[in-house]
């Protein structure tokens, strides 16, 4: 993506997703030709940002960093999205739904000179279902005597229409002021992670698997004196540890270091602790005691990391105690208990002796890269096209669900939304996931796939 942006010369257009992390997202929605792209240009105040697209060329980048009244937010533009000519209404509604899902608030644009059309009404239905804050923009009100046109749009039932001329800028400031009122200060859709600095790792596992031993082994003599690091704000329970010359935040280590007594409720406490650490982390290092039979609690910890949507590396600790027999059992236990996480790296090591602890960094890098992978909408849809052509969904009860369109709604972890004409078999979904992993290498990260059925 970066290369592409640099090659085409639109540097400004390219932005680092990290910088926008956690900022509220405002989406501009509306049927084709109402002036969405024009409004986006107006808001971004740089015409070059949104290139007039060649028809038929999919523009994949839909989010832009934007500012208004001293506030930073992310603007999602649906103006250049390809429309399916056959089912125009439907594809407009589908794509709007994706954009709405990615948004914290929506500006719904209607062409006041045309009035509410059938497609507009379809979109209102989608908007209503979303329960997101909505602002109704009555566009193409280029002069005061056109304001009466805007008033007709009360009929859409979305409250007061705000007259605006995206082309000339008339009313645009007022519209944005209003938009800032409905836009939450913090995003509930974007990841609110610290923008930069060392990666955040949760070291988790049931009691006695060797978490504090590993922490000590990794910290060794290379413990970073945090006060030396200018400008780092730090939670006292987090620890900065340098491994191979690179610093990593190990979050919530107080919980790891504080020895837990095996009393009633320890399990519960451990799971709360795990949850808290996962909240703050980007990656989970899940420790298992390879010398003992895998327990239910081990599986629960692994599942918690997956459910939290974190990158995962699995560690088989205490390898110094593992003999040939145990090794065989372990293989069997992994196959049976951890089949939901075949995609994660496994490292056999000994926290006690330090054997193979040097393999951790590479696995973490790989998992984090997978976690942040983004596939462009164009690539994703051609991939799915080929996949379906090679292996169509089986016919069920005389029906065969078709895949209409898909998009990667987010990263960290990768999340996909697939629009179909019917429910997909679980087996077919798994097939899609498997192929996604084969083709795009989402190693070490969970993938979330949601299917939206259009009737
Ligand atoms: P989109 O498909 O919703 O992104 O619409 P565009 O932004 O591409 O605009 C469609 C057409 O409407 C273009 O010819 C624009 O110049 C025109 N347009 C957009 N906003 C206004 C406006 O405020 N006033 C007038 N008169 N025309 C506008
Ligand atoms: P925690 O409760 O997960 O923090 O586990 P600890 O780090 O306190 O380790 C529990 C016990 O396992 C301690 O007695 C450690 O010495 C031991 N232990 C940890 N790692 C290893 C290892 O790699 N090999 C062996 N043999 N023992 C280990």
TrEMBL record:
- Cite the GO molecular-function annotations of the record: ATP binding; CMP kinase activity; dCMP kinase activity; GTP binding; ribosome binding
Residue stretches making up the EngA-type G domain = 24-187, 199-372
Reactions mediated catalytically: CMP + ATP = CDP + ADP; dCMP + ATP = dCDP + ADP
UniProtKB keywords:
ATP-binding, Cytoplasm, GTP-binding, Kinase, Nucleotide-binding, Repeat, Ribosome biogenesis, Transferase
Q: Which residues bind GTP 2?
A: 205-212, 252-256, 317-320
Q: Which GO terms describe its cellular component?
A: cytoplasm
Predominant subcellular localization, coarse grouping: cytoplasm
Instruction: Give GO BP annotations, semicolon-separated.
Output: pyrimidine nucleotide metabolic process; ribosome biogenesis
EC numbers for this chain: 2.7.4.25
- Record-stated family: Belongs to the TRAFAC class TrmE-Era-EngA-EngB-Septin-like GTPase superfamily. EngA (Der) GTPase family.
What this protein is reported to do is described as: GTPase that plays an essential role in the late steps of ribosome biogenesis.
Q: How does it assemble?
A: Associates with the 50S ribosomal subunit.
UniProt protein name = Multifunctional fusion protein
What fragment of the full-length protein is this?
Answer: 269 to 723 of 727
């Amino acid at each position: 993506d970066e290369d592409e942006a640099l090659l085409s010369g639109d540097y400004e257009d390219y932005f680092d997703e990290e910088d926008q992390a956690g900022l509220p997202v405002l989406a501009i929605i509306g049927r084709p030709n109402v002036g969405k792209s024009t409004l986006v240009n107006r808001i971004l105040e740089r015409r070059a940002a949104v290139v007039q697209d060649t028809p038929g060329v999919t523009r994949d980048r839909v989010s832009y960093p934007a500012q208004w009244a001293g506030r930073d937010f992310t603007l999602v533009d649906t103006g250049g999205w390809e429309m399916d000519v056959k089912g125009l209404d439907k594809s407009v509604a589908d794509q709007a739904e994706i954009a709405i899902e990615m948004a914290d608030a929506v500006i719904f644009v209607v062409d006041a000179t045309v009035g509410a059309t059938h497609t507009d009404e379809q979109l209102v239905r989608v908007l209503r279902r979303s329960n997101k804050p909505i602002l109704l923009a009555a566009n193409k009100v280029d002069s005061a005597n056109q304001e009466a046109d805007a008033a007709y749009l009360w009929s859409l039932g979305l409250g007061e229409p705000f007259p605006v001329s995206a082309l000339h800028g008339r009313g645009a400031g007022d519209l944005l002021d209003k938009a800032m009122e409905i836009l939450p200060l913090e995003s509930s859709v974007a990841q609110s992670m610290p923008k930069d600095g060392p990666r955040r790792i949760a070291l988790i596992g049931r009691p006695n698997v060797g978490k504090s031993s590993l922490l000590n082994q990794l910290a060794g003599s290379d413990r970073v004196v945090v006060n030396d690091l200018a400008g780092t704000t730090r939670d006292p329970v987090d620890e900065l540890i340098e491994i191979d010359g690179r610093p990593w935040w190990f979050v919530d280590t107080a919980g790891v270091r504080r020895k837990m007594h095996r009393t009633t409720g320890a399990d519960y406490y451990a799971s709360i602790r795990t949850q808290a650490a996962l909240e703050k982390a980007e990656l989970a290092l899940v420790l298992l005691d390879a010398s003992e039979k895998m327990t239910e609690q081990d599986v629960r910890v692994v599942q918690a990391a997956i459910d939290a949507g974190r990158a995962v590396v699995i560690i088989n600790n205490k390898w110094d105690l593992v003999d040939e027999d145990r090794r065989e059992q372990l293989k069997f236990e992994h196959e049976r208990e951890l089949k939901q996480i075949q995609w994660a790296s496994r490292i056999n090591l000994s926290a006690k002796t330090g054997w193979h602890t040097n393999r951790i960094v590479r696995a973490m890098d790989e998992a984090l890269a997978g976690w942040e992978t983004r596939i462009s909408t164009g690539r994703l849809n051609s991939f799915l096209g080929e996949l379906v052509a090679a292996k169509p969904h089986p016919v069920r009860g005389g029906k065969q669900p078709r895949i209409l369109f898909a998009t990667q709604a987010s990263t960290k972890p990768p999340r996909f939304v697939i629009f179909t004409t019917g429910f997909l078999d679980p087996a077919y979904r798994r097939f899609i996931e498997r192929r996604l992993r084969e083709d795009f290498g989402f190693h070490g990260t969970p993938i979330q796939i949601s299917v939206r059925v259009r009737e």
